[in-house]
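User: Can you help me understand a structure? I only have the sequence.
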Amino acid sequence: MGVLTTQLQKISQQPEYVEWKPFFEEEMAKEYFQKLDDFVTEEYQSQTVYPPQEDLFSAFKIAPSKVKAIILGQDPYHGPNQAMGLSFSVRVGVTAPPSLKNIQKELESDIGGTHKKTDLSCWVEQGVFLLNTVLTVRQKEPASHAKKGWETFTKAAIEYVLHCSNQPIVAILWGKPAQAYESTIISSGSNRFVIKSVHPSPLSASRGFFGSKPFSQANELLKQAGSEEINWSLEL
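Assistant: Let's start by predicting it. Here is the structure, written out as tokens:
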């Protein structure tokens, strides 16, 4: 049994993942997932791969019916001790990678304050689904696990959220891989909103991420739709 199947079967028994269980079961039965599982399992056996296996599906601890915002990135951080299963987040005590530093800078510009917290779990607790389009990566090789099947899985996960949640949802899409999901979100019904820009990576942040004000924009859209705003603060 492969790494992905093993992890999904394990977490399916945990109460925080209960709403995802039908989705997991349906995807695991598909041919693309079996090929993806074979690939990822071989990679974990022969390469250094992030995140740790036990963190592979940490983003799914949020119940799909509770999601009111989605932040979609590309793939996990590819340095040691960084990736933890939530897009852009690292654990307490880990130095913020460059993309997260740029998110903190934009947050300060957008809503004020000084934002140095690196663990973004506080966003998850308020209904933010922190997902990447690809959920694994080789050490020091960004995009090394792209186009292996993950994109099919994460698109299906977003579609499942959009089906399960009756509340307004704002999707924040950073970078071209994330923006490929725009039509999926917009076409899913009313009260579905998209905010998009280049990725917060230092390679692109100065070309439209800085100054994009995604956090205040998201709250304004939620407010207009009659939903509770998100406290984006990462102040320590």
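Now, to help you interpret it: The chain has a mean pLDDT of 97. The two ends are 42 Å apart (CA to CA). Let me know which part you'd like to focus on.
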